[in-house]
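Continuing the batch. This is chain 6 of the set; chains 1 through 5 are on the previous pages. Same settings as before, nothing changed between runs. Recording input and output for traceability.
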Amino acid sequence: MLEIAMNRMESGGEAKLKYGTPDFQIIKPGAYVRCAVTGEAIPLDLLRYWSVERQEAYVDGEASFRREMEAGGRKR
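Output for chain 6:
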């Protein structure tokens, strides 16, 4: 399964998204986005965490929480 996901990411390139609530909009088609915290590639079909405010994607809940703490835990 991981091999299939990696092949899909290599052939599709990096996407550009506009993050909204509760979904995202694809601005530039691609197979993945990068986690703003770890730099890890996230296949679009596995993307579950992002910030509408910062327009960033996160690989998992821990990365999302880390970014929130770095930002001071503030909501605007």
